[in-house]
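Deviations from the work plan: none for this task. Representative record:
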Amino acid sequence: MPAVRREVPSLTEKKLLTLEAKANEIREDILRMLTTAGSGHSAGPLGMADIFTALYFHVLHHNAKKPTWAERDRLFLSNGHIAPVRYVTMAHAGYLPKSELTTLRKFGSRLQGHPEARMLPGLENTSGPLGDGSSQAAGTAYAAKMDGAAWHTYCVMSDGELEAGITWEAALFASRNHLHNLTWIIDRNNIQIDGYTEDIMPLEPLHEKFAAFGFHVIEIDGHNIREFVDACDLAKATFEAPTVIIAHTIPGKGVDFMEFEPAWHGKTPKDKTELNAALRQLRTLGGKIASEMD
Amino acid sequence: MPINAAAKLSRKLFAKDIPELPTRNGFGDGLLLLGAKNEKVVVLCADLTESTRVDAFKKAFPERFVQMGVSEQSLAAIAAGMALAGKIPFIASYACFSPGRNWEQIRTTIALPETNVKIAGAHSGVSVGPDGATHQMTEDIALMRVLPNMTVLVPCDAIETRKATVAAGEMHGPVYIRFAREKSPVFTTEKSPFAIGKANILRTGNDVAIIACGPLVYEALLAARDLAKMGVEATVINNASVKPMDEVTILAAAKRCKAVVTVEEAQAAGGMGSAVCELLASEFPCPVERIGLQDVFGQSGTPRELLEHYRLTAPWIVKAAQRVIKMKR
């Protein structure tokens, strides 16, 4: 099989507006789903809604009706706790009925609290214990390179999990093996359970760290879908090194009382009143979010 | 001599010049066979190519050999990723580091999603010798057998290790194979049966059942020979397939003998002997003695000194057999 580069399609203004609106719908469904579940993480999923929307509705070569299609691009999730954004986006993309979203974290559900690959076709990997996903993605990209496959491997990961040593083992491996078919996407939202990353275990200078490890490093505004799509295109045009996209995001994006607030990392709206307050913001802004209106 | 003919043991079983090889050699030989048979087989090694015996595979199939460096956590998770893309990865290191250091990655990325990864733990047991306790893995059987979906194999000599390696590569799902550094007698033959999930009866007797795994199976056979001289006839079972365990064969032996000794070069707590006790506790409670490390770590010394110091050799198996026979009702 020839190693053909599959382009990221160009993004028209019209498509961009559609994606932004879609991301907002996905945020609303995330909040509904989390409130029903009664436990889970709010900030990360809201912060990554734009990127997941762009991945499933523009960047990835995939087929929701054939989740095990051999030529699909692989999307790994390393910080499994943001699974709600993936589940909702997959539901919008047709991998599962939207009605199933209410089963999140419930007994017998395919939507486990942390994603289990075998439960829901299309998930690719099992994750949750932080740090493991980047290695799994690197292994898959290595195998793809061995086989001369045309598909690309992506891995979404958090900034907090970069504190885990295994991440840097995987970084050495990806660089040493010139895994140009691998793109890591870091949700750089600066929070983790116990507070701000730079207080807990400073990660900066992150760009320079990855550059020193031999990565092609791109920094973007993680809420600017066009920047993200362009970064994915650049990643595919890189032939010698793996790419890391450091996506600066706002945890809790779109709901002002959740934004930048570590307390919202690991909890959900506690009741209908809190949920409605959040939904109202998302609806009235019609896809534009509070921090951009200031 | 009630050696079970069906076990097809070596004609030199008790000869002074019985050939000796480290079980890890069988791993290297098995990988070569698998590599030639199936191009999906890949080998990942964490900076221990020669001593885990994957060097022959590396030479024969350089494009399918992956040098990982000293990175055991990613060794496991990267192999899982390769398995997701259709490869059959074998990961090779010392058992202290894999599955010792990377147990969580094995649990999350291999056991839980049942990825087709084979974990090879070299240098297990105190017979590692001079390197000392840090490098003598004695907790691996316990660590691995409690993982759902994990198959655990502890072959008894180089020939059986080769068969176990091939069988691991031919089944789908996670497997842990354990082997040793030191030479040990090669007492099985090409014709000896081996199958995952099957225990092999090497000797038959009705007074006590000695259930062993790994190179110490040979000590169990020596003990049975010595017991016979005292008028005690022992059944000896090679329980290489620690999980899934051959409950039928083991239960039948326990019911016939009504007294059991288990033998392994690992912690007695949680190991193969514990698995036997779990079975017997619910199906056929009877006296059991577990030969193994008694809640202590190893230390430096020659392999022989250490096996004797930790009471893992034939004379200690004989004593244990005598104790359980006395306890019979």
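Chain A is about 40% helix and 10% strand.
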